[in-house]
Specification:
The protein has 128 residues and is of the alpha+beta class. It has helices at residues 33-36, 40-53, 70-88, 93-98, and strands at residues 4-10, 13-21, 26-28, 31-32, 59-66. It contains 4 helices and 5 strands; from the N terminus they run E-E-E-E-H-H-E-H-H. The chain has a 5-stranded mixed β-sheet.
């Protein structure tokens, strides 16, 4: 195994994940993982697939992510990491699938319609 890569998507975020053998260093867009995502809750979202597969310190992970906000980016990265782990070892598929880390969350923002203030919200109705 020299280099395993995969893609994860969520909302309008796309993450390209590259795995190599190493010591567990994670870099996102050239920055340290904890520097890019300073919030602990978002950090745990990214690290969850590694904990489920019990391979926290075996691989160096390089991630390029673009689009969306921090939550969408974190969940896109989570999907990319889970897909890479399955490529590396097929035995990781069952625990990751049970936690729903291999499912692409297809929910996206609905577009705004004309004549309405938002996608579905209407102006107040007045009978008279």
């Amino acid at each position: 195994m020299e280099n395993i890569n995969s893609v994860g998507r969520r909302k309008s975020s796309t993450a390209r994940v590259y795995f190599t053998k190493g010591s567990g260093k994670i870099t996102i867009n050239g920055k340290e993982f904890t520097e890019y995502f300073p919030m602990k809750t978002v950090q745990t979202t990214v690290l969850d697939p590694l904990k489920v597969a019990e391979v926290e310190n075996l691989y160096d992970i390089k991630i390029n992510v673009m689009g969306g906000g921090f939550k969408g980016q974190a969940e896109a990265i989570r999907l990319g990491i889970a897909r890479s782990l399955v490529k590396i070892n097929e035995d990781h598929k069952k625990p990751l699938k049970d936690k729903k880390y291999l499912t692409r969350d297809a929910r996206e923002v609905e577009r705004k319609k004309f004549g309405k203030p938002k996608a579905r919200k209407s102006f107040q109705f007045s009978k008279r």
